[in-house]
Design a protein that fits this description.
Elements lengths: L1 H13 L4 H6 L5 E3 L5 E5 L11 E5 L1 H13 L9 E4 L2 E6 L2 H16 L12 H12 L4 H8 L4 H8 L11
Antiparallel strand pairs: 1-2, 2-3, 4-5
Helix pairs in contact: 1-3, 1-5, 5-6
Length: about 170
């Protein structure tokens, strides 16, 4: 489970994914690119009910973690992140509640304190990645494209609490 969880967290962050989008990913939705990263697609989301899809890119870190996970996961299970019970992969997707628990446990390991329920949600990876992209100097258009936002006011809600000092150079 640890290998799956690390891959799930990394891809969720890189893809700016909602919990429901992570649980819906299938093996054919991601591919490794020639540069060592990932290319993926989220086929349907809360803001894309007609399934036009959103093209995504992942880091070398995510690609390495995913390769490690895929070597352990049975190839006949179509879900990218399947449920695991007693170290056995099950032929069903990991559930949204489990994704939330994975995120909470990661925060606990990182901060040493369990977050309050209101601090962590199914959007936590998405929010954190968007705020980090802003802090790294990416423009709002690139962030909106990566996160699949078509409305500036929605994207700005995610970025409103970002610590971004425009007076310090990158």
């Amino acid at each position: 489970m640890g290998i799956r969880n690390r891959a799930l967290l990394s891809i969720g962050y890189d893809f700016l994914a909602r919990r429901s989008e992570l649980t819906a990913l299938r093996n054919e939705d991601v591919e490794f690119d020639a540069r060592g990263g990932l290319r993926g697609v989220i086929r349907r989301s809360k803001t894309d009910p007609y399934g036009r899809g959103r093209l995504l890119f992942g880091s070398e870190r995510s690609a390495k973690l995913l390769r490690r996970w895929l070597r352990r996961k049975p190839k006949d299970i179509p879900w990218l992140f399947c449920a695991v019970n007693h170290d056995t992969c099950l032929d069903r997707s990991v559930c949204g509640r489990t994704v939330s628990e994975i995120v909470k446990r990661a925060v606990l390991r990182t901060l040493g304190a369990r977050p309050r329920e209101a601090e962590i949600s199914g959007h936590s990876l998405r929010v954190g990645a968007a705020q980090d992209l802003l802090a790294d100097g990416h423009d709002i258009g690139a962030i909106m494209r990566a996160g699949g936002w078509s409305n500036m006011s929605i994207a700005m809600r995610y970025l409103s609490l970002a610590e971004h000092n425009i007076w310090q150079s990158r």
